[in-house]
Design a protein that fits this description.
The protein is an alpha/beta fold and 279 residues long. It has 2 domains: 191 residues, P-loop containing nucleotide triphosphate hydrolases (Rossmann fold), CATH 3.40.50; 65 residues. Helices cover 48% and strands 11% of the residues. Strand 4 and strand 5 form a beta hairpin. Helix 1 runs antiparallel to helix 3 and helix 9 packs across helix 12. The longest helix has 19 residues. The radius of gyration is 21 Å and the shape is globular.
């Protein structure tokens, strides 16, 4: 298989976690763990689930690995899917469905296409995005906001490892990891909002917790590490000092729970630093 996180070779097949050999899997997990701040318990469970999934998939015992993550907004749930995709192919497109847009009676038609003969008949968003993707990762965001027919559709998809669109075209999801995310706040609400029959189909369910002060500091360190890679010309023109770093991190993030909000402030302060240094 191609180098981990490398560029896609010409005419390559879809890259999936089930392609990873033992050594590449460990590198994949190490990179994932480094780039996801906090959530240690989840990381341990995900490694266990992925390792078993690779073996079970090879034995044709399990076609899809499904992960359901819930908790407050902005604390890393969708980042899980992005990191999994990026670990397979750097800077790749991630197939993502936002189920906030799938709360109407027509939701299933929007997902897999309207039946033949209907005005606006098409493939549906799911099939289009799966076809566009080069990696076997699917993100189903804000999944709790959709409808009962869509829940039933995914119940069958997770059972069979494939789905059929409105034009009777079949899509094989063998080897896929499907990450479902939700802003449901706790386990009690999860059990209340997600149908019991679907709960039994998820392979890994985990609640994401808000970052601790130490984890916020670690996140800032990670942001700076990534910025040095992202802006090589600027950092080669000026070597950042410890004082610059302290100033960059010197803002009150104690009341900020969403990591995306911390990232926004960091990026603005980084641009200010570049301006101050004339680079």
């Amino acid at each position: 298989m191609p180098e981990l996180g490398g560029d896609l070779p010409e005419e390559s097949h879809l890259l999936k976690v089930t392609d990873l050999d033992a050594a590449t899997f460990e590198s994949f997990i190490d990179e994932f763990n480094h780039n996801l701040i906090g959530h240690g318990y989840f990381k341990e469970r995900l490694r266990y689930a992925l390792k078993n999934y690779i073996a079970l998939n090879k034995a044709k015992e399990q076609k899809v690995l499904s992960v359901f993550l819930f908790g407050s907004s902005g604390i890393g749930k969708t980042e899980v899917a992005r990191l999994l995709a990026n670990g397979l192919l750097r800077d790749t497109y991630l197939a993502k469905i936002n189920f906030q847009n799938y709360s109407s009676q027509d939701a299933l038609n929007s997902l897999i296409g309207s039946p033949a003969g209907y005005v606006g008949c098409n493939h549906g968003e799911l099939s289009e995005k799966v076809q566009k993707s080069k990696v076997g990762i699917l993100l189903c965001d804000e999944f709790e906001k959709t409808t009962r027919p869509v829940y039933s559709f995914f119940l069958e998809l997770l059972e069979e490892g494939r789905f059929t669109d409105s034009m009777a075209r079949e899509y094989d999801m063998d080897g896929y990891v499907i990450v479902f995310t939700s802003n449901i706040p706790n386990e009690a609400e999860y059990k209340k909002n997600i149908p019991p029959e679907l709960q039994t189909r998820f392979d890994l369910v985990c609640e994401f917790e808000e970052p601790t002060p130490i984890e916020k500091e670690q996140f800032l360190e990670l942001l700076l590490e990534k910025a040095i890679v992202k802006y090589p010309e600027k950092f080669s023109a000026y070597e950042i000092t410890d004082a610059d770093k302290r100033a960059l991190f010197d803002f009150d993030y104690s009341g900020i729970t969403a990591l995306r909000d911390i990232k926004r402030v960091f990026n603005n302060r980084l641009m200010d630093l570049f301006t101050q240094k004339g680079i």
